[in-house]
Amino acid sequence: IGLKNGETSAVIDSVATAATTATLTSNVGTYAITSSGGSDNNYIFNYANGTLTISKANLTLTADNKSREYGLANPGLTISYSGFKNSETSAVIDTAPTISTAALITDNVGSYAITLSGGLDNNYNLILNNGTLSITQATLTATADDKTREYGLANPAFTVSYSGFRNGDTSAVIDTLASGSSGAVLGSNVGNYAITAAGASDNNYTFNYVDGNLSITQATLTATADDKSRYVGAVDPVFTYSVSGLRNGDLGTIIGPVTYNKTALPISPAGIYTITPSGAASTLNYTIVYADGILSVIPQVTSVFPDAVENSLA
Question: How far apart are CA 158 and CA 303, in angstroms?
């Protein structure tokens, strides 16, 4: 200001220089800009300071996204920063913002805000961005309970046990309970068969399934010696047996031949004697028990009506 005759700064012999004490790392504020060093044959110089205003830079703070399983404590919440100057870090922030989430340990699976609030710094405008806490399903183990039944009977009701609950939950909270099933049918032979669990679903849990075991045991088959009779001194009749306890339409012949012991001898007097069966070949699906029969030894009778006596023994 003050040039004459339409002159410009181009006519000045030595142009003044401007300087300030502010540096790259100076804090927000106002700093004097001073001028000096100008000279000219036609002009003398008066110097007036200017002002350098350093304003706040923008610093973006973002709550980091986090994840945890249902029923666990929230993880540590952290913040990421973008926009620092002069290689600064979060350590320079005068008052750090608070970071929090409303999610509780008992909250259901879902997404919950991680919020930033507050915070202050002399050199930065803090721009706060929320993050997300994702609560994911915990894992339950669903185990089919072991069961036992006899051959030839219907399968028992299958049940499932659970482990891995959180927050004091029980199977009562499961939206859809698992069901058990087996390939064993009414006529399946004695042995072990897998019981599989499947079909459970819940908003807070995912499921791992563990098989159980259905043990089919032998049914009890009773072989009973049939009652017989003979005369004193006569040859024993052919001993036979009857079977009870068969299942699934099985035939009595499945147990094979039976041997017999009797207490009566050919010369034994008239009376009642025991026929004891034993020795049948074992069978896969049955255990065999035996029941005695009776051998009635009858006195010889001399009669004018032998046919009538003989018919009475038939």
Answer: 69
